[in-house]
């Protein structure tokens, strides 16, 4: 078993476990999480959320980002300057759409979350740009 510094099990789920968890997803959730889609800007339910708590992976419930790291990027997607725990995000090169970007995925269930860009605020200078539909919010 692989455990993050924050104390969460990061052991990758099997295909059967992912398929079981995905049974309750809507078509749009499936398109974003499993087929690496993107929701339209300014339509996500978590964009304007100002409550205190944590944003978890919709599929496997791993905490991804704390509300303390959320900021208004003006891009139309929920944005964060650092993850809940560095090990709770997996990074992949994405060369789709004729450009090179860094895709971010859940390390436990491999769900597509969004992308990270080097134009965020201090202290990290990073902008983790997330699909609201890829997350659920757990209020503290």
Account of the 3D structure:
The chain has 140 residues and is mainly β. The protein has a single domain, classed as Peptide methionine sulfoxide reductase (Metal Binding Protein, Guanine Nucleotide Exchange Factor, Chain A). 11% of the residues lie in helices and 27% in strands. The chain has 2 helices and 9 strands; from the N terminus they run ααβββββββββ. Strands 3-4-8-7-6-5 form a 6-stranded antiparallel sheet, with no helix packed on it. A 3-stranded antiparallel sheet has the order 2-1-9, with no helix packed on it. 29% of the residues are buried. The mean pLDDT is 95. One of its GO terms (cellular component) is cytoplasm. Belongs to the MsrB Met sulfoxide reductase family.
Let me know the largest β-sheet: 6 strands, antiparallel
Low-confidence stretches: none
Strand content: 25-35%
**Separation of the first and last Cα atoms:** 27 Å
Total number of distinct structural domains: 1
**Rg:** 14 Å
Number of strands: 9
Active site: 129
Protein name: Peptide methionine sulfoxide reductase MsrB
GO cellular component, one term: cytoplasm
Cofactor: Zn(2+)
Short description:
With 140 residues, the chain is mainly beta. It has helices at 15-22, 27-33, and strands spanning 53-57, 63-66, 70-71, 79-80, 90-94, 101-105, 112-117, 127-130, 135-139.
